[in-house]
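Course assignment 3, question 2. Fill in each field.
Student: A.L.
Task: Predict the tertiary structure for the chain below.
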Amino acid sequence: MTAGTTEGSESTTGAEGTESPESPAEGAAPGPRALARRRRRATVARFWREYRRHRAGVFGLAALSLFVLAALCAPLTVGSDVESVTNAPGQPLESPSGRFLLGTDQFGRDLLGLLVWGSRVSLLVGLLAAALSVTIGALIGITAGHFRGWYATVMMRITDWFLVMPTLVLAIVLATVLSRSLGTIVLAIGVTTWPTTARLVRAQTLAVESRPYIERAKALGGGHWHIMSRHVLPNVMPLVLAQTTLIISSAILAEATLAFLGLGDPAVVSWGGLLQDAREAGSVSSGDWWYLVPPGVGIALVALAFTLCGRAVEAVLNPRLGVSR
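Answer field:
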């Protein structure tokens, strides 16, 4: 009885002392996924340390954060009824006062509320148009740099044609032919501003594919998709990211221009649309500065904030540019 008990306790101890193959041993090296996550965290931390050294970039990021926060909180702070013409709270073209800090528009609506609400449309169109532009440019640039031959020749000649054509004229033509909506504005800006990104990404792709490890990957049987997605794309992504932040400011200015020309969606409020309404109301000749200045200042500040952020990102990702801090 005692021997059986001893044997049972020994077997139990042995079973408890044996480590499960599924649980990693103490002090064992982390797996590949854990290493990848650790490297990504270290890369992000290193990027933020370098970015903080650029005072202009930090200022641009702070200003941009305020604009984005105001746009996201617009339904709570001003409400969607700020666009209503029939329920306007004031008289047409009231000057700034304690009740209306930025005055009213030609319908008696609060201009401060319209300015905050219009930031949603301007920022959204700028982001979507920049994303579309960079996606098209990166796709054409990577494929033209990888395949070369007749395909690269055709793509680069199309790119050159878009480069020599006035971007604003092409956007106006597309916005005129298609229906007047936000989707049309995004499409018009996105399909006319991609050539610069395409040429930059193609040049970077050619530089990456001339490196020895690309030849080794091809020798080991790596296909076109593997080379472009696993080797080329990660190396051109920093350039694409910097180009995106720079294009957003141009896209916001283009949206404001198209809306000012009357080619935007008349059913939504945007900064460019407010400038168009001010022009139609005769604010330039009558001296109603509160109708003109705030939307223009908002467009300028957002474009400047994105430009400062883009230059800082570009300087961090490519220190040889020597961008001032």
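Instructor remarks: The first helix runs from residue 2 to 17. Residues 1-25 have pLDDT under 50 and may be disordered.
Grade: pending
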